[in-house]
Prior knowledge:
Layout: E1 8-10, E2 13-15, H1 25-30, E3 36-37, H2 41-47, E4 51-56, H3 68-79, E5 83-88, H4 110-124, E6 137-140, H5 142-145, H6 150-156, H7 163-167, H8 170-173, H9 182-185, H10 187-202, E7 206-210, H11 214-228, E8 233-237, E9 250-251, E10 254-255, H12 265-273, H13 277-287, H14 292-304, H15 310-324, H16 326-341, H17 350-359, E11 362-364, E12 377-379, H18 380-386, H19 393-401, E13 405-407, E14 410-411, E15 418-420, E16 429-434, E17 438-443
Helix pairs in contact: 10-11, 12-15, 12-16, 13-14, 13-15, 15-16, 16-17, 18-19
Amino acid sequence: MPQARQERRIGYYWYMTESTTPAPLFELAWRELLFQHTEGLAAAFERGTVTGYCGFDPTASSLHVGNLIPVMGLVHLQRAGHRPIALVGGGTGMIGDPSGRSSERTLQSLETIAANAEAIRGQLAKFLDFDGPQGAKLVNNVEWLSPLSMLDFLRDTGKHFSINYMLAKDSVKSRLDDGISFTEFAYMLLQAHDYLELHKREGVTLQLGGSDQWGNITAGLELIRRTVGAEAHALTFPLITNANGSKFGKSEAGAIWLDATRTSPYQFYQFWMGADDRDVSRFLRFFTLLDRADIEALDQAVRSAPEGRAAQRALAMDVTTRVHGAEAARVAREVSALLFEKADPATLSASALSALEAEIPYSVYAPSAESTASADAVDMFECLTALGFAASRGAAKRLLEQGGVSVNGAKLAAADRVIARDRALMGRFLLVKKGARDFGLVALEP
């Protein structure tokens, strides 16, 4: 494109300067969240309020961090003055989208799907404003799919699509060699039916989704065009991978969930703290609402002082605060500073000590008959074996002799087999450290 027009490539399309590109397209583009969209979408944004939707699969009781890309897409849509709709696939979730899958998923009951949908509603409320003229709305497609008869579906939706059209879509084509059931084959038509239904009910003219959803979304555009002759659009986000090629959103323990009972706030915080220096700048753009100047300053910090991990800390605090609240983020930060940044154990809050119980080896002190400690003292042999840091009392003795144990930040000597109870944090806790990285927490009974 001619440079005189001050255009530049951002994402999938060429864009003019910010002043000439309608929001939210420019916002999504500079944040590298824009993969592709239909022609005419920019003009639709310029004409007035656009109602757009994105679907979420309720086959689990929680969203995970991989879902945050489309969630943030809806956030930017709303911040630009448009109206977001979150569609929970209570109906389609019983079937399953074949996109990106190599096998058939396990079908779930209506009761399980309904419970999962309700949990997801609460999580989306942490990102989207459900009040006001552009207030978000959450809908469940079971409302119109459940009463839909097979004959009506085939007559009103199925007749508009040829088998050749469906076979050409990547979500179907990729499964042909291994086999795909008619159930999942029909998913594309159900998603198209959803788009048409939301167009009629809510005035939806935009569907958002991952780039692997392009085929399903454009099927919906085709159905709207053929049945009601209306203009509708598609916008997709890039599929995210880590710089090392691994799948984004996974840890050694599995998926990183937004539900605190499945992934604790500390583990959630630590996932973002673990972002590679090559990824953290992208993640700040993707998953936070920090402005461009702040993100560029953090970009510079990654280049000039990567050891400080300022960008990772900003990312972790921002996302954890949004998902779990400011207090949970503060506690997660406190625990992380202790375990990885040599923070003084004496500064730990009661909340941080409580959180540690679930994150590191934990034991309640109960001396055995072999212990020689008095009532106002603690036998460290007992503590080390209870935490699994030593296999026996003899191994515990050798650890102390080697100077490999500290309690509440103070290194123990060989003679410190028994220590006074008054050294406990908050009068109750001993934070035991073995070597450079292994921590355990011992709670003393009154």
